[in-house]
Amino acid sequence: MSEQTIVGAALLGILEGLTEFIPVSSTGHILLAGHFMGFESTGKAFEVLIQLGAILAILTVYFARLRNMLVTLPSSIATQNLVLGILIAFLPAAVIGALAHSFIKEVLFESPILICIMLVLGGFVLLWVDRWAVNPKYTDITRYPTSVYFGIGLFQCLAMIPGTSRSGSTIVGALLLGADKRSAAEFSFFLAMPTMAGAFAYDLYKNRDILSVSDLPIIATGFICAFIAAVLVVRKLLDFVSKRGYAMFAWWRIIVGALGLIGLLVWG
């Protein structure tokens, strides 16, 4: 294992943390960056396993609220509704992700052109939704109807195509179903916890026979860097989107996708 590999893992970990909770596709970014850097991980496990760092970032930032939810769960209808809503939204991705795991990792993860196209297309969708002038029906994530929770879960399944973005698909879904921008981003945070934890556990299980001790320093480096970067993003994102919306992230997607396509055409 070379020093260059560790540096590459650190850079990709930082990229994961910075992009996981904004609607630009963290997986698409690290797969594209890894492609141009020549970074190869065992079974493409690194790209999934370092997401645990981002999960712990949410747990750190939201610790007080999560603890309060745990305490009030037996008696609070609002907390019960939110927990049930998260489980409902999580189910579609859990089922489809398990059934399509091999296709996602062996086909979709290996297609940088597809990633670039989805980044660009997703950027235009985000621009359109951000400018969509509709008065939101829902501003409190504990009061979403069951149909909205389930609908957001269906939208999350689109993120199995790398370049689409898990946070982007859930936020767009929530906005289209009547949520305001702040609560859409907040629910995306909460839904990320079971979704990413499930993806981590399932991918670790599927790759248990090919991962070795030599992979641990690379994964640990990416994990730590992802955690630090994600903490910074989670602390600031809700206030940012409340004031400025998602247009900046839409243009980010379009520019990165276009540059990626140019890079693929020039360097292959």
From TrEMBL:
UniProt keywords, alphabetically: Antibiotic resistance, Cell membrane, Cell shape, Cell wall biogenesis/degradation, Hydrolase, Membrane, Peptidoglycan synthesis, Transmembrane, Transmembrane helix
E.C. number(s) listed in UniProt: 3.6.1.27
Keyword Cell membrane: yes
One annotated GO molecular function: undecaprenyl-diphosphatase activity
Catalysed reactions, as listed in the record: di-trans,octa-cis-undecaprenyl diphosphate + H2O = di-trans,octa-cis-undecaprenyl phosphate + phosphate + H(+)
Location relative to the cell: Cell membrane
Biological role: Catalyzes the dephosphorylation of undecaprenyl diphosphate (UPP). Confers resistance to bacitracin.
More about this protein: Bacitracin is thought to be involved in the inhibition of peptidoglycan synthesis by sequestering undecaprenyl diphosphate, thereby reducing the pool of lipid carrier available.
Protein name: Undecaprenyl-diphosphatase
Native species: Aquamicrobium zhengzhouense
